[in-house]
Design a protein that fits this description.
single chain, 147 residues, alpha+beta, GTP Cyclohydrolase I, domain 2, 4-stranded antiparallel sheet, 5 helices, 37% helix
């Protein structure tokens, strides 16, 4: 798929989601064994995950019922399991696993933004933080474009 087509898909999905509400969960600390270097996979290190879920909250904002929204606790459990169950070399892949798991587990979620911080990455520099941000949207026929 060309970069132009992919950019158009993302723009269409964002426009479609413009009226969507957000559930956010920040600062989830997880010890995991992701990384390219051998000591990262042996000892592991601390990662911090931030999540933003695009969810229509209009129903739950009227009913005050958990069944009409997405359980924060279940989101954290799903994200943690997806992040820890497999050791990945790249943060990009670990973040992708979290995004895929959230979209699969929570049908009310139309899009997910996953930020993974790796504050102790083995980089020969003084830095505060390093990480990745992924945004994934649920694919629907209205966002498919043809060339």
């Amino acid at each position: 798929m060309s970069e132009t087509v992919q950019a158009l898909r993302v723009a269409a999905a964002i426009e479609e989601q413009a009226m969507t509400d957000t559930i956010f969960i920040t600062g989830v600390v997880i010890h995991a064994r992701h990384g390219v270097m051998e000591h990262e996979t042996e000892v592991g290190q601390r990662f911090v995950i931030d999540l933003e879920l695009s969810v229509d909250l209009s129903e739950s904002s009227r009913t005050d019922r958990l069944a009409d929204t997405v359980s924060y606790s279940n989101v954290v459990a799903t994200a943690t399991a997806a992040f820890k169950n497999t050791n990945y070399k790249l943060l990009e892949r670990a973040a992708g696993a979290v995004a895929d798991a959230i979209l699969a587990a929570f049908p009310r979620t139309s899009a997910i933004k996953v930020t993974v911080h790796k504050p102790h990455a083995p980089i020969a520099a003084i830095f505060e933080d390093v990480g990745v941000v992924l945004i994934r949207t649920r694919q629907s026929p209205s966002t498919w474009l043809t060339c």
